[in-house]
Amino acid sequence: MPETPWTSTDRVEFETPPPQLHVSGHPLVRHKMALLREASTKPKKFRELVRELTWLLGYEALEDVRLEPLTVTTPLEEIPGEVLGDRIGLIPILRAGLGMVDAMLELLPMAEVWHLGLFRDERTLRPVEYYNKLPDSRTVEVCLILDPMLATGGSATAAIDVLKRWGAVRIKLVNLIAAPEGVKAVIEAHPDVPIHCAALDRQLNEMGYILPGLGDAGDRQFGTGAG
Ligand code: PRP
Ligand code: URA
């Protein structure tokens, strides 16, 4: 066992961004990310920012969902309109993904929510599954995995594995911060899964934390960090 869990010295740097990766360039996203990263931001404000960023990223991630035609009767006329045709499932990765659920439900009140519990073993950085609330049969067309952090990519890859074994066909990842190492790992394992994030950071440190990152997203939301 190595002394530090993350021993890769090979920085991953993309010459050209992979087509699966969508990094929001929206000024509001960039503004809110600066506040989110700031170490002095307290849990209450941190949770608000996670929620607001999730609205903005969720909006972008849903740009290609299917629409169905319907007739709308305004007070004055009948016109052709559209409603969402795809049923959507939200899969928050416990625990840090919990902070993204309410915002997505505000955008998609009809979405189903299936909790998936994964944590990173601190020694190996491998994901450990401890909770799975997926329904018995597939009930949606599009699955959105919600997790603020894509670090080594182990948790995201495991979550996608679980969803594919269960029958999911269209899966999207929604993260706030992605490390290039995690993006590469997910794309190698699941090239069909688009990744929507607010920022692509520089690299992982030797403990598998994202640099510059924001620290531990779960601790910062729920006030469980040291100090
Ligand atoms: C964090 C984060 C991701 C995972 C990312 O969760 O929310 O799920 O780490 O790391 P990876 O890409 O290297 O797998 P953590 O395991 O700290 O659990 P928590 O949300 O319960 O704090
Ligand atoms: N999980 C986090 O919460 N932060 C990181 O930087 C990496 C994994």
Task: Give the helix/strand layout.
Layout: E1 21-23, H1 27-37, H2 43-61, E2 67-73, E3 78-84, E4 88-94, H3 101-107, E5 112-113, E6 116-120, E7 127-132, E8 142-146, E9 149-150, H4 154-166, E10 170-178, H5 180-189, E11 195-200, E12 203-204, E13 210-211, H6 217-222
Parallel strand pairs: 1-11, 4-5, 4-6, 4-8, 8-10, 9-10, 10-11
Antiparallel strand pairs: 2-3, 6-7, 12-13
1-O-pyrophosphono-5-O-phosphono-alpha-D-ribofuranose is lined by residues 93-96, 118-120, 125, 127, 147-156, 182, 208, 216-218.
Note the overall shape.
globular
The radius of gyration over CA amounts to 18 Å
Ligands and ions found: 1-O-pyrophosphono-5-O-phosphono-alpha-D-ribofuranose, uracil
Helix proportion range: 25-40%
Strand coverage percent = 25-35%
Averaged pLDDT:
94
**Poorly predicted sequence stretches spanning 5 or more consecutive residues:** none
Oligomer: single chain
Q: Encode the helix/strand succession as letters.
A: EHHEEEHEEEEEHEHEEEH
Quantity of strands, as a count: 13
Largest sheet geometry: 9 strands, mixed
Number of helices: 6
Question: From the helix content, strand content and strand pairing, which structural class follows?
Answer: alpha/beta
What is the terminal-to-terminal distance?
29 Å
